[in-house]
Amino acid sequence: MPFDSPFSRRRGLRALAAGATLPLFGTALSAGPAHAAPAPAPDARLEVMSFNLRFASSKPPHPWAERRPVTKELLLRAKPHVIGSQEGLYFQLQDIEADLGADYDWIGTGAGGGSRDEFMAVFYDTRRLAPLEYEHIWLSDTPSAIASNTWGANSPRMATWVRFLDRTTNTQLYVLNTHFDHVSQNARARSATLLAERIGRLDASRPIVVTGDFNAVAHKNPAYDTLLSAGLVDTWDAAKERSKAYGTFHGYGALDPDGGRIDWILTRQKAQVHAASMNTFTLGGRYPSDHLPIQATLTL
Questions:
Q1: What is the DSSP annotation of 232-294?
Q2: Helix 64-78 and helix 90-100, axial crossing angle in degrees, nearest 10
Q3: What total number of domains does the chain contain?
């Protein structure tokens, strides 16, 4: 049942992200009169990005103060309509929001229930997308319990999904963003099973985009197989055009051609995937993160 939040979309989400631990599950948001959409444009393309930001640290050799300008320039050049981000800390997400400008907003909460943990933040271009409902779930036997961790994961893991109105096409879609554990295969496998079950609860007539760092190599892990068996397709495989392929985790080192893809963008089989790419942008020889952002151009 939707939770009736007393908070407004922008001001309330900021307050909650800063440390509140309200159980914001199935929270419905009011689109309001300003969200009236224009006539449908069936072929309007949606630019999607999944980006493990690498949590902000002040310690060298890759402090956030030096990575932030690279991240800003990358995002301003890419101009995605929606970004599923992982590992971002609250102040880091605030920096990114400021750098993206007034046309972007985000939804998320800390995996540990506060502001000092990683967020599964979903950034979105408010000119294109209007959030209607969202939910935070924890990847555990008790998904509604904040910070729950029962499968041997190194730390609490979670997912955030948002139901959006696409202002351009006057249709609705889901975006689900997650980060699987990097230590426990049991946690990864059970997380995939949980998300497949939760995706099955969502309205199957609406498109869905799943973004995340899954810490599992595509085609080489049961977690990948589980999500594809839920009716999803890998946009990298389905794309009509692709960039050069690299391992998506590079650890600030040399890129690994045709290396393992542990960051994925998935969608339903009916979607058209026009292009998929791995963003190798650097500024002054510096990468924005230890992961490559991945992108997909979709018609849903």
A1: EEEHHHH-SEE---B-SB-TTS---BT----EEEEEETTSEEEEEEE----BTTB-SSSB--E
A2: 40
A3: 1
pTM of this structure = 0.90
Contact predicate 180/87, CB 8 Å? no
Please report whether residue 64 resides in a domain.
Answer: yes
CATH number, residue 112: 3.60.10.10
Domain of 100, in residue numbers: 42-299
pLDDT in tens, 53-72: 999 999 999 999 999 999 99
Give the span between the Cα atoms of 86 and 247, in whole angstroms: 17
Query: Is residue 29 domain-resident?
Result: no
Q: Is residue 19 part of a domain?
A: no
Q: Is residue 13 part of a domain?
A: no
Q: Burial, 97: exposed, middle or buried (Cβ in 10 Å; 0-12, 13-18, 19+)? A: middle
pLDDT tens-digit series, residues 253-299:
999 999 999 999 999 999 999 999 999 999 999 999 999 999 999 99
